[in-house]
């Protein structure tokens, strides 16, 4: 009955544009995206054969709003999905549909929805299209603000799993209290205090003949956030009952996650620090789920998200079975006339991050797997990154950015392929932005990665030329010039151009794609090598 109801909703919402002009206060908006690639054979770089030759990812969102009511649908098509995305994503159909109503502090959503409790340690339903990740919930969500400063949420539903739904039922509640907004005596205080708490459970029948598995698994968390002047300090602690699964080797150990962050900023100076500890905290609505499927929660990576190509060669993937993570960053503005500030001043930023194993002591009870001292670090380093970035405006038209990155990448742990060891790399990047005039801009990058491990050293040259407001042209070449195997000293090149007109953008590209990991916020997917012509179309309305 529910599917029939939403099928009718789809037809109704799809027909709304035809008569919406006659409805006062109506707003219809959405967006469209299409990414396709024609794959050319290239056995030299290990590009797999693509029988279809052309693969694509595409979607169309349509949202209708009127007064306190809104409804929406999304149609997606993967025929078949681009390389690097799960083949289970193959197909087409309406994958997201909802109706929503708000009035007098109450908000009700029926259908699909995204949401997050706190920092996401016990619940984060979201999508990240670059990863092919979409764990939207399908069910009911209720949000209520009984008094100023207090928000209560309740959710129940099942998760999207490509073009199907997971078997597990997810249920949860969250409350957040901004004390300053609720208490008149705190309203004028300079310090803002926000408290919150969450509880999430999943239900999945025990259909395993080998283990006796809990049908209900609960996870709870408490959090705080204190803001005063330039200071912002926050933290959250989460606990999860035993949850035997494929990810943890079917052990019955409880799980925990802790997160602490602190930032301070004032004119010309700022710093941030973060620490986290994760212990057996993989949380999925199906025990056998793998890769990025059916994840209920989100465990952030405390590492810098590099955007330069060579600096992102070795990204970090969060280890939900157990890790300690630390990150610190400092920012300085160098005054005009100083040694490094020059005549126009400059900015200098330092960032250091490290991920390391937790302490693990094997137990005689195989069901528990191990014990772990909360305050004790394990010996194995998973990842380490130190970088310095110097930004200086040389003149009114020229800006220079110099970056140095040191990386220690544990390939065995992060990629799950024992036998490779650590990759230690040093990366230097010089970027120049030249604003030629009001319409023309040229950006160039020279990058070099030095390492004695893996495929050895790389060099890269990149150029982007923009003609505002419509055209852009770009090209880069990354060359693995130091590979020990001279037959594998490949040049990965790419050229592209595009046209933008208001909210519409179309781009074409041609070139080679190096195999590797693509990560966003500690969640990753494997990208195979490829060669071919790509097209991208985006539009919003």
Account of the 3D structure:
It contains three helices and 32 strands. The protein has 541 residues and is mainly β. The protein has a domain of 165 residues. It has a 24-stranded antiparallel β-barrel. The longest helix has 18 residues. The radius of gyration is 25 Å and the shape is globular.
Short key terms for the protein model shown above:
mainly beta, 57% strand, 3 helices, 541 residues, 32 strands, two-stranded antiparallel sheet, 24-stranded antiparallel beta barrel
Task: Give the structure's gist in a few sentences.
The protein has three helices and 32 strands. It is mostly beta strands and 541 residues long. It has a domain at 307-359 and 376-487.
Broad structural category: mainly beta
State the oligomer.
single chain
**Roughly how many Å apart are the termini?**
33 Å
Proportion of beta-strand residues: over 45%
Low-confidence segments: 10-22
Which sheet architecture does the biggest sheet show? 24 strands, antiparallel, barrel
Number of strands: 32
Q: Average pLDDT value?
A: 94
Count the DSSP helices. 3
The geometry reads as: globular
Explain the layout of strands and helices.
Elements: H1 2-19, E1 26-39, E2 54-66, E3 69-78, E4 91-103, E5 106-113, E6 115-116, E7 124-125, E8 127-128, E9 133-134, E10 137-144, E11 150-161, E12 164-178, H2 179-182, E13 191-203, E14 216-228, E15 231-240, E16 255-266, E17 269-279, E18 322-334, E19 346-358, E20 361-362, E21 370-371, E22 377-393, E23 398-410, H3 411-414, E24 422-435, E25 440-451, E26 458-467, E27 471-479, E28 491-501, E29 504-513, E30 516-520, E31 523-527, E32 530-540
Antiparallel strand pairs: 1-2, 1-32, 2-3, 3-4, 4-5, 5-10, 6-7, 8-9, 10-11, 11-12, 12-13, 13-14, 14-15, 15-16, 16-17, 17-18, 18-19, 19-22, 20-21, 22-23, 23-24, 24-25, 25-26, 26-27, 27-28, 28-29, 29-32, 30-31
């Amino acid at each position: 009955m529910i599917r029939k109801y939403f099928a009718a909703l789809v037809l109704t919402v799809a027909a709304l544009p035809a008569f919406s002009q006659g409805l006062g206060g109506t707003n219809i908006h959405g967006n469209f995206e299409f990414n396709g690639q024609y794959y050319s054979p290239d056995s030299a770089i290990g590009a797999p054969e693509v029988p279809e030759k052309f693969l694509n990812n595409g979607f169309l969102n349509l949202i209708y709003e009127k007064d306190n009511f809104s409804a929406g649908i999304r149609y997606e098509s993967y025929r078949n999905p681009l390389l690097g995305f799960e083949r289970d994503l193959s197909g087409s159909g309406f994958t997201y549909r909802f109706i929503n109503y708000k009035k007098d502090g109450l908000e009700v959503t029926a259908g699909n929805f995204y949401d997050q409790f706190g920092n996401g340690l016990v619940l984060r339903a979201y999508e990240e299209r670059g990863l092919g990740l979409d764990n939207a919930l399908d069910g009911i969500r209720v949000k209520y603000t009984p008094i100023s400063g207090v928000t209560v949420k309740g959710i129940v539903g099942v998760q999207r799993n490509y073009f199907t739904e997971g078997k597990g039922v997810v249920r949860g509640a969250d409350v957040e209290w901004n004390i300053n907004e609720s208490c008149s005596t705190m309203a004028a205080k300079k310090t803002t205090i926000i408290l919150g708490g969450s509880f999430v459970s999943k239900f999945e029948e025990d259909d395993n003949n080998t283990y006796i598995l809990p049908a209900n698994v609960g996870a709870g968390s408490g959090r705080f956030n204190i803001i005063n002047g330039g200071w912002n300090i926050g933290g959250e602690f989460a606990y999860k009952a035993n949850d035997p699964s494929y990810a943890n080797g079917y052990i019955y150990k409880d799980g925990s996650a802790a997160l602490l962050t602190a930032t301070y900023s004032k004119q010309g100076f700022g710093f941030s620090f973060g620490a986290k500890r994760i212990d057996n905290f993989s949380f999925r609505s199906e025990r056998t789920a793998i890769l990025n499927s059916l994840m209920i929660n989100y465990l952030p990576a405390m590492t810098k998200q590099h955007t330069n190509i060579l600096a992102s060669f070795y990204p970090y993937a969060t280890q939900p079975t157990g890790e300690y993570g630390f990150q610190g960053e400092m920012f300085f503005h160098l005054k005009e006339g100083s040694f490094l500030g020059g005549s126009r001043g400059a900015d200098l930023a330092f960032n250091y991050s490290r991920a390391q194993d937790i302490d693990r002591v094997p137990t005689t009870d195989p069901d528990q797997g191990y014990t772990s001292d909360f305050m004790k670090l394990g010996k194995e380093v998973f990842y380490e990154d130190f970088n310095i970035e110097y930004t200086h405006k040389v003149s009114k038209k020229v800006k220079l950015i110099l970056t140095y990155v040191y990386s220690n990448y544990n390939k065995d742990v992060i990629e799950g392929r024992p036998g490779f060891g650590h990759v230690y790399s040093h990366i230097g990047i010089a970027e120049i932005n030249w604003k030629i005039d009001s319409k023309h801009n040229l950006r160039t990058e020279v990058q070099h990665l030095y390492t004695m491990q893996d495929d050895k050293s790389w060099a890269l040259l990149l150029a982007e030329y923009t003609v505002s407001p419509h055209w852009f042209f770009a090209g880069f070449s990354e060359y693995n010039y130091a590979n020990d195997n001279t037959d594998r000293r490949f040049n990965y090149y790419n050229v592209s151009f595009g046209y933008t007109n208001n909210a519409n953008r179309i781009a074409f590209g041609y070139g080679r794609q190096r195999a590797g990991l693509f990560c966003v916020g500690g969640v990753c997917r494997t990208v195979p090598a490829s060669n071919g012509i790509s097209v991208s179309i985006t539009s919003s309305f």
